[in-house]
Amino acid sequence: MKKIILLFAGFLLMICAENAYAQEGFGIKFGGNLATRDGGFDFYQPFLAYHFGFVYRTPIADQLLFQTEVAYSLQGYRFAGDSQFGFNYNYINVPLLFLYEFDNDFYAFMGPQVAYLLGVREVFGGVKTNPQVETRDIDFSLVGGFGMNFSENLSGDIRLIYGLSIFAGSDPAILNRFPNRVLQFGLNYYFAR
User: Fold this and answer.
1) What average pLDDT does this structure show over 102-125?
2) pTM for the full model?
3) In 1-152, at which residue ranges do the beta strands (DSSP E only) sit?
4) If you write DSSP's letter for every residue of 95-122 in order, what string do you get?
5) Which of 49, 112, 158, 191 is the most exposed place for a label (fewest CB within 10 A)?
6) Interval 121-143: pLDDT, tens
7) Of 6, 20, 25, 34, nearest to 68 (Cα)?
8) How many C-beta atoms lie closer than 10 Å to residue 189's C-beta?
9) How many CB atoms lie within 10 A of CB 78?
């Protein structure tokens, strides 16, 4: 919990210092996740989860913007045929996104993301336990998606988080077969733009 508070406090300090010089967009974000793993197997199925956090957007050039976020994200998977068994992974995601705004309030974006694993929970029949599994703390991903500005203060987007990292286990032949795959849909509310 201390790590989450320190990360959010650092992000807020960075934003406040930046806003002393210019008025860019700072706000909150929240939404849903459809999360799974890509293991090349048919026994993973996605499950519905959520994310929330902070977002900061600043112009770089005409119609080109930079956006960064610090967000908690519940990810993981369930086993096919038994949606009561699987794993929940708790991450702090920090994407660095480049946005291109079209003339009709739509925008497209892409960029890298680094995520820090806060913890793992095994889910079995609705009961959550702390398993003894081998995991990596850092997850690197590529992010891409589309969005729309509904007003000056409200936007929404849909994105694919395509994990690149070796995730868990000790067998090199299996390691690279378990990257994160997350389809996110969410809203961003900006306090100042």
Assistant:
1) 88
2) 0.78
3) 25-37, 44-45, 47-61, 64-79, 82-101, 106-124, 127-129, 138-149
4) EEEEEEE-TTSEEEEEEEEEEEEEEEEE
5) 191
6) 877 766 566 655 566 788 899 99
7) 25
8) 14
9) 20
Question: What one-character DSSP code corresponds to residue 18?
Answer: H
Closest C-alpha to 144, from 180, 188, 109: 109
Supply 182's token pair: 């997350």
The helix/strand/coil state of 58 is strand
Q: Is it the case that residue 24 has pLDDT exceeding 70? A: yes
Are 163 and 114 in contact, with CB atoms under 8 Å apart? no
Tokens standing for residue 23: 């008025």
Q: Which of 89, 69, 66 is nearest to 7 (CA)?
A: 69
CB contact at 8 A, 79 and 86: yes
Q: How far apart are CA 141 and CA 164, in angstroms?
A: 5
Contacts of 151 (CB under 8 A, 6+ apart): none
Q: DSSP class of residue 62?
A: T
pLDDT > 90: percent of the chain: 46
